Amino acid sequence: xxxxxxxxxxxxxxxxxxxxxxxxxxxxxxxxxxxxxxxxxxxxxxxxxxxxxxxxxxxxxxxxxxxxxxxxxxxxxxxxxxxxxxxxxxxxxxxxxxxxxxxxxxxxxxxxxxxxxxxxxxxxxxxxxxxxxxxxxxxxxxxxxxxxxxxxxxxxxxxxxxxxxxxxxxxxxxxxxxxxxxxxxxxxxxxxxxxxxxxxxxxxxxxxxxxxxxxxxxxxxxxxxxxxxxxxxxxxxxxxxxxxxxxxxxxx
Length: 252
Hints:
Layout: E1 9-15, E2 18-28, E3 31-35, E4 39-43, H1 49-64, H2 77-87, H3 96-101, H4 111-124, H5 131-134, H6 139-152, H7 160-163, E5 170-171, E6 174-175, H8 181-200, H9 203-218, H10 230-243
Antiparallel strand pairs: 1-2, 2-3, 3-4, 5-6
Helix pairs in contact: 4-6, 4-8, 4-9, 4-10, 6-8, 8-9
């Protein structure tokens, strides 16, 4: 019997006045499988498969969509709008840079720079505890604690050269190269770029830090009771604490 790959059908839907693109579905024998960062399936293969798949996608989006009024009211309006776009972005979008930019230009040492520094540092709180369970030592969490303590008291010494260099994960003296590497490397990158941002105020460092933290979170580096997506945790937990320039409560 000749084998052929199923045809991929791209679809999009409108939810709450916003179009969600970047989704697709395939028909596998008598089952429709839909994917848009999450998956869903329906048995049967009706003639209107396209409409069935769109209905599935609409339900998926609605289940995870965060309405504007749910965004913390204490956020500045520009940040609030950017946070709403960010938390509802699809996997194909990269809205982190826009969220960072929504704060405005941050000069090194300014209050705004301090707020964004707390955002990056607080975003590490969920992911760094995973480091010690997958490799030797606890370099990522130790550096995170150094950075947090420095933000609370800038007189505390920090080895900035070491902090800005991504830690190398080892296990039994050998560099980790198995499937855990995809979890450990983004943790190390997030910590290093956070340290760089604290010193440089370069928005590119903040963006890279948050994107890497998101990647580690997506790989399972978070507590069991954590929100289903990093974006939700960032908007509802990390951001309010960052604006108040205070550390987030320990997690993990």
